[in-house]
Amino acid sequence: MQLSPLYSGNQCLYADIKQNDHIFRVYSVHLQSIQFEPADYKYIDTVTQKGKPDFSSTKRLGGKLKEHLLNVANRWL
């Protein structure tokens, strides 16, 4: 779904959801271009299911996300 005339293949949607007195912002991000590897997906599943983060894996994924988001931001400037 094209969200803007400057469509780059990378899109992000968000919704603010109010529950009681709290507002939660939920993001949906197209991550294909970040090129996660199978080990990255396995790590995400492990953290999601067992809640056991690993510092080096978290740092690797954070680095990929940071690099990607900076590249996307630079294209918009």
UniProtKB/TrEMBL annotation:
Protein name: Uncharacterized protein
